[in-house]
Amino acid sequence: MIEENVKKLLAEVGTNPFGEKVTLVAAVKTQTVEDINRAIAAGITDIGDNHVQEFRDKYDGICGNPNRHFIGHLQTNKVKYLIGKTYLYQSVDRLELAEEISKRSERAGVVSDCLIQINIGNEESKGGFEYDDGQEAYQKISAMPALKVKGLMAMLPFTDDETVLRPLAMKMRELFEKLRDRDGNIEYLSMGMSGDWKLCVECGSNMVRLGTSIFGPRHYA
Q1: Are 25 and 43 in contact (CB under 8 A)?
Q2: pLDDT digit string (tens) for 108-120?
Q3: Has this prediction a pTM greater than 0.85?
Q4: What is the pLDDT of residues 141-161, one digit of tens each?
Q5: Is 220 within a domain?
Q6: What is the CATH number of the domain that holds 89?
Q7: Domain range holding 47?
């Protein structure tokens, strides 16, 4: 099933309406090393972890050298476990976290790539900068040493109502383009999960984070 799902999704994801290749990041929360490796063998090049402990426990068992993303809420005291091992920190949702990643990266002699998380739906249950603060957050974070802003990340509200979701997704694309016009390093708009990724790609996302669509429903211990 995993192999079939991966091949189907890779064929479907393709490019967005702006002609940009869409990167498929497999969200691997709660998945076994065996199943993750099956997805990689089927063509997955990027995987995303939500929890530092899982990232550490499974790190040596992952085959194929995929790009390792961190896509979950990240506590500052756990950043040290990810430095030098993470391709992209997608969930930089506050200045304190950006400062810690920058400090740890500089100390380790590496430059870390990150995305700024925007709370596009202004939801209390989600982290991230408010939309109107996005450009100011970019200015502050991009000025930090050993940290490179590569774009934006967002999670849309959990609803099937496209009249709610589409305008929010388009606003994210608008902010992405404003920042990209200022900074050639801006490359990724990471937006879209298993329930809404098609709409997000239609609105200009060029990176999606899919778990259930690849592995099926999660089984929590």
Answers
A1: no
A2: 999 999 999 999 9
A3: yes
A4: 999 999 999 999 999 999 999
A5: no
A6: 3.20.20.10
A7: 2-215
